[in-house]
Amino acid sequence: MTITVEHFSWLSDGYLSAKILFTAGLTVVHWRAQRFGKILIWVLVGEIAFFIAFTCLFFGYTHSSTLEGELLSRVTFEILTRQLLYQMYQLVMGWVISGIGFFVLNWFFLKRHRGLMLDVLDIQRLVIGMIIVGWPRIPIYIALVFILSVLGMIGLLIFRRKKLSDRLIITPYIIPAAIVTLILGQRVLEVTRLWMLSFV
User: Fold this and answer.
1) How would you class 21 by CB atoms within 10 Å of its CB: exposed for 0-12, middle for 13-18, buried for 19 or more?
2) Alpha-carbon 67 to chain mean position
3) Where exactly are the structural domains of the chain?
4) pTM score, two decimals?
């Protein structure tokens, strides 16, 4: 089979669809603290599998072009090389930023302001969502979680299901926010120019 540039788009679209389905599947997971590590492992395996597949496509494309005697466009080669490096960068930065976020959230909500808004399971879910959406979509994801939480709180206040003294609940909005970020995140990055946060 001849590998073409379209295969890279198919791989990226397929991986995005798998992420959305996996994230949606987390809604039916009976979440306990012990599951955090297992889910992290599954996410990491998916990230590494995608990167390996992308790398294999890259080398397969360049090799097949050479065998067929085609002159691989320098522009095409540079674009694919940058895309490969960018995938690696996103993988590393996503985990680094999420790791930092995990420790900051633990320190702020569990040690300094215990019981203020987030419990340990909320923090774990939030971090899983951060890893899934990846960098540089994480700021969009965090903002969307809290926007949905505030809107939900306003709705409950209107219907008198909550009081102003009650804490803000983010749990129901973590997974939906991740799915919306996966679907619309790239568009939002382009419109808001937040793509510059990628630093590449």
Assistant:
1) exposed
2) 37
3) 6-198
4) 0.77
For the stretch 151-200, pLDDT in tens is: 888 887 777 666 655 667 788 888 889 889 988 888 888 787 766 666 55
CA 152/CA 148 separation, integer angstroms: 6
pLDDT by residue (tens digit) across 82-115?
777 777 787 888 889 888 988 888 888 777 666 5
CA 117 from centroid of its chain's CA atoms: 23
**Residue 136 preceded by cis peptide, ω within 30:** yes
Q: How far, in Å, CA of 94 to CA of 97, rounded?
A: 5
Measured CA to CA, the distance from residue 125 to residue 26 in angstroms comes to 9
Report residue 195 as tokens: 């793509």
Rg of the chain over Cα atoms, rounded to whole angstroms, equals: 20
